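[agent] plan:
  1. take the single chain provided in the ticket
  2. run structure prediction with default settings
  3. attach structure tokens to the ticket
  4. add a short note for the reviewer (M.T.)
[agent] executing step 1
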Amino acid sequence: MCVECAARAVFLVDRDGQPIAFHGDIGDMDTTSFASLAAGNVAATSSMAKLIGEDVFPAVVHEGEHESIYISVIGRSLLVVVFDERSTLGLVKIRTKRASHEVANLLDEMSRESVVQAAAANTFFSEITDEDIDSLFS
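[agent] step 2 finished; step 3 output follows
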């Protein structure tokens, strides 16, 4: 994604502000703070959307003199792109839209797999009886 739209850095963040992954030139950036602030920003703009009758804003843009940020909401995750004058907002939007679909599909697949794994773990633990636990500590 960094190469496709000449972005400086790309982050995948959950809505709680936890960084999931990042790639690119982050230098000495505090990625934990950045992820938390991005999530807080989306939470604030989501509240603003509701105040004006919108369900949600699917994206948030911050344009600076030299650096800009584009945040795309993907379910419970955020795709955050940091870019400079080497790229344009239009290119970032186009590439992010396509990447968002791919990320959403990947996250859905991972979610389904974790449900299956959790069900398997529950089956394993449900077979353990109180007697098994007592005999373990006797």
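[agent] step 4 note for reviewer: The helical segments are 31-51, 89-126, 130-137.
[agent] ticket updated
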